[in-house]
Write a structure and sequence with these properties.
- The protein contains twelve helices and 13 strands.
- The protein has helices spanning 16-25, 80-93, 115-132, 185-194, 196-199, 205-212, 215-219, 223-232, 245-257, 272-281, 303-312, 347-354, and strands spanning 34-36, 45-47, 64-73, 98-109, 135-144, 151-161, 176-180, 235-239, 260-264, 295-298, 317-324, 328-333, 336-339.
- The strands form two sheets. Strands 8-10-7-11-9-12-13 form a seven-stranded mixed beta sheet, with helices on both faces. It has a six-stranded mixed beta sheet with strand order 1-2-3-6-4-5, covered by helices on one side.
- It starts with 15 loop residues before the first helix and ends with a helix.
């Protein structure tokens, strides 16, 4: 085991090496009903409630699994409730499951919280849940000392038929990689909303206004994307790229399965709004928080059918590369070949830390 460091971590996710070390050496799951537990690239857990707790019997396993997920929202404030529901639902959907029930913990800043703020967040939670068929079933709300802004910690529960479960570590050599929508919906919305005043003089105002609406159009939910893909063809793995952007999402998808990938740079769909904002702020779109895009590894002979099905439902989709046996992710850009960058911090976190 690596020696523990006393150096403080920067804003963002734990470094991958430290996270793997913690999960490997400091976590024990004795309950055999846990079908799918924590790990690199695993964003939700799967639990079988069909077998008894003390004497699990494989013959008594149920035909449906419970899928559970938790995630906080710490960046966005204007529509934090909307983010919380959709970001948590996305990871449920990426396992082929249907999100059903949501629990929210609201931590609200002392001296800055009034009834209007609480009403607004609750309305967002209800509206977002209603749109994707999720019920708000509980949680906790408190005014918390020493907070600069509201934080919502969500927990989503869903269900999936046992034979419809899509494992996040299921990518296979030869699979085609499909990306829905573009890069990167959530990060673009956050930057347009939080950095609007700074960007107003350097980014076209119409483009900036459109970017601020990315939360709803094209939207950060991939629940429908995942449902359409799994109904249309053979899907081996799905992932909702979040912190660290599409680059981190691809690395996580491949590392979870012990495989690699080849990405075609020319096929990566970067929104012009994203490009303009990132250029103005000196950020790389590949490392920008990217909820709203579904990354899927699918059987190669089903790829065209899945892409067509998504497009017929009004969801943009593109083939961006393929899975290979050799670990690591390479980018092909014309005659150039280079490793896909690794982002130890999300570009939004890096920007906010520098302000």
């Amino acid at each position: 085991m690596k020696p523990e460091s006393t150096h403080p971590y920067p804003i963002g996710k734990l470094p991958q090496t430290d996270l793997v070390d913690l999960l490997t050496h400091k976590l024990n799951i004795p309950d055999p009903r846990v079908i799918f537990g924590p790990g690199l690239g695993r964003d939700a857990a799967v639990i079988d409630f069909g077998a008894p707790a003390l004497q699990p019997d494989l013959d008594q396993r149920s035909d449906r699994y419970l899928v559970v997920k938790t995630d906080p929202i710490t960046f966005a404030t204007d529509e934090i409730g909307w983010y919380a529901v959709n970001v948590n639902a996305n990871d449920i959907a990426c396992l082929g499951a249907t999100p059903r029930w949501f629990i929210a913990t609201l931590l609200l800043p002392e001296g800055k919280t009034d009834r209007a703020l609480v009403d607004r967040i609750f309305e967002q939670l209800h509206t977002a849940g209603h749109e994707i068929g999720v019920s708000l079933v509980g949680g906790h709300t408190e005014i918390t000392h020493d907070l600069a802004r509201p934080i919502v910690v969500g927990a989503m529960l869903g269900e999936v038929a046992a034979d419809r479960l899509v494992r996040s570590n299921g990518a296979r050599p030869g699979d085609t990689l499909i990306l829905t929508k573009g890069i990167c919906v959530e990060g673009t919305a956050i930057l347009a909303q939080e950095m609007g005043e700074k960007l107003r003089d350097v980014v076209d105002p119409i483009l900036l206004k459109r970017a601020a609406q990315f939360l709803h159009t094209p939207g950060i939910s991939v629940v429908h994307d995942a449902a359409i893909a799994t109904q249309a063809g053979e899907v081996h793995a799905m992932h909702d790229p979040t912190e660290g952007g599409i680059a981190t999402g691809i690395h996580e998808l491949t590392q979870a399965a012990g495989v690699g990938a080849i990405i075609e740079a020319s096929t990566l769909p970067v929104y012009p709004e994203t490009r303009a904002i990132c250029d103005a702020l000196g950020l790389d779109p590949l490392g920008l928080i990217a909820s709203g895009s579904l990354l899927a590894a699918v059987a190669p002979d089903h790829a065209d059918t899945i892409v067509d099905a998504l497009r017929k439902q009004g969801i943009a989709a593109a083939v961006i590369g393929h899975v290979c046996k050799t670990p690591g992710v390479m980018v092909h850009n014309g005659a150039e070949h280079y490793p896909l960058p690794i982002f130890t911090r999300d570009e939004v976190a890096r920007l906010f830390e520098s302000l």
